[in-house]
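REQUEST ID: PR-0412
SUBMITTED BY: lab tech R.K.
PRIORITY: routine
TASK: structure prediction, single protein chain
INPUT:
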Amino acid sequence: MLALGIPVAAQGAAYPDTTERIIELGRRACEELGADALVLACGGMSGVTERVAQAVGVPATNGVAVGALTAHALWRAGLRTSAGGAYAPPEPIPYDGMPSFTRS
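STATUS: complete
OUTPUT:
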């Protein structure tokens, strides 16, 4: 994993210098780390995925979209959070001045 080091608000298709930095790191990942695919793991990079893939010469994917689609696929397959007890119930939160969302 290589960090871009640029704030999310300064990434994306509207920032050509940032795109060049992503391409630079993509090439470095391939040359130095042996990567043969890239995951752009920030929503701010979603508009440059195809450009990066073309410039670097390996497949690139939008990690945020892939994560959302994976979660959707799991939901469509009927998978839900386990009821085995690994997850604690949420702690009660006081909602001062708001109507109750549950019936007692």
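NOTES: The chain has a mean pLDDT of 86.
REVIEWED BY: pending
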